[in-house]
Amino acid sequence: MVTGFLPRASASELRFGFCENSRVDPFGPLMAWLLNVLLPGAGLILRRREWLGLSMAVLFAICGHIVIAGFLIAPETIPSWLVRLAVSLVVLAWCLSQYLCYRQGLIFARTRRGLSNLLSEAHAAMKANDLAAAERALDSGLALDDEEVELHVLRARMFGLTGDRPAMLNEWRRVLKLDRHKRYRDEARDAMQKS
Known about the structure:
- It is built from 9 helices and no strands.
- Helix content is 75%, strand content 0%.
- The chain is mainly alpha-helical and 195 residues long.
- The protein has a domain at 11-110.
- It has helices at residues 11-16, 28-38, 42-46, 50-73, 80-127, 131-144, 149-162, 165-178, 185-194.
- Helix 2 runs antiparallel to helix 5, helix 4 runs antiparallel to helix 5 (80-127) and helix 5 runs parallel beside helix 7.
């Protein structure tokens, strides 16, 4: 049986580009932005661009060390052209990281809007007992973001309605792995124990 509706994303959540489980964690985008300002690349890591964020952080750190060494530690031993190049790369890494973090926020906002629409469509289809339409909407949502907890919850509920126990159990296991805030833990454990 389908129990209740999942919360929808608000306009402010869409505007700031929240990431996974963002409706529960309202400080996600602000924290990503602040970390990215202080340490370029860290915000990208929070916004699920791990390798890009790591490369920006490494570039910033290495060039920053060269700048510090060139100005403060050993100014006579490090060539001035290397220090100027390092300063340029530090500024470039910081600016590029800010732009990429902003761009990733816009992508998340677009994805969040699409997921919100697909979740509403899936809820309506399941409420109308049109499981084929619900499955299409959920599959489209998984194509957008396969780590969205609510999609897996609805898929598990749908598989429970169709009687596909192995698929339902797999989805509930996935929910338990993805649900950082443990909103669906009890429902998942109950459904897994009943099967």
